[in-house]
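Record 1 of the preview.
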Amino acid sequence: METGPVASAGLDGLTEVAGRIRGAIESVVEGKGAAVRLALTVLLAEGHLLIEDVPGVGKTMLAKALARSVDCSVRRVQFTPDLLPSDITGVSAYNQELREFEFKPGPVFANIVVGDEINRASPKTQSALLECMEEHQVTVDGVTYALESPFMVIATQNPVEMEGTYPLPEAQRDRFTARVSMGYPDPAAELEMLDVHGQRSPLDKLAPVATAADVRRLVEVVRMQHVAPAVRQYAIDLVTATREHPDLRLGASPRATLHLVRAARAYAALDGRDYVLPDDLQDLAVPVLAHRLLPTAEAQVERRRPEQVVADLVARLSVPAPRK
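->
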């Protein structure tokens, strides 16, 4: 672990730049500080964010605000039932002048990809994101193309019970670092929204407050965060408990463990710390783990949701004692 003035300067720079990004987003999305912080955490953890909630609560607004706060390439994809995988990844087209095929990159070739209503596309089209989200590359016609860094997918989706939706496959959900629900705003925030959004969208005035190079530097700082052996073991205990829980027929994967620790590093860095606490894992357990879990039929009948299971596990498992 790097310590001393260099590490301190890195954390100071991270909190300053992250504070600018957070302020820019919150100038557009009122009263959702927890959701904004989680979005920043996922960005710095080199992950992907799934925003799930009912229509009209600001899912796309949060995604667009984060994308516009960073001066980098941004592409938006509106997922529809007739969308094809090649509409996302790109396609090889024959060039009459050159008399050869040339690759036409799709919208996935950007730093931030905003996927609106991802679960309205068919599972075949959803699967076009699997390779790029995990390996940061795209393979078309046997040729592999690397994606830019940073690379983040911010996807919104309506609850599965809404009409015209397809449930995300387990492999797709597992690639999202965290899931956040916006929820309805409180009356004061909704009243302020009427004033701010009444005449024009505040997105029109939102200017970038950081660059892609800034984000790459912050990611390097996050990678240096120290995770003690006891804290790593606590993360494994949390994930293992989901695999053994009687209310779950599918527990969290080893990828979930990696995502939990990476997100905890970023979460700690946003607090100005160069080390991870068990509290960080506890705060992130539900948004990072719950969307990957599948309840048993009995748990579904009893309306016992994965979020409740994870919260119970966090409350039940013993926390590693601090070193003396």
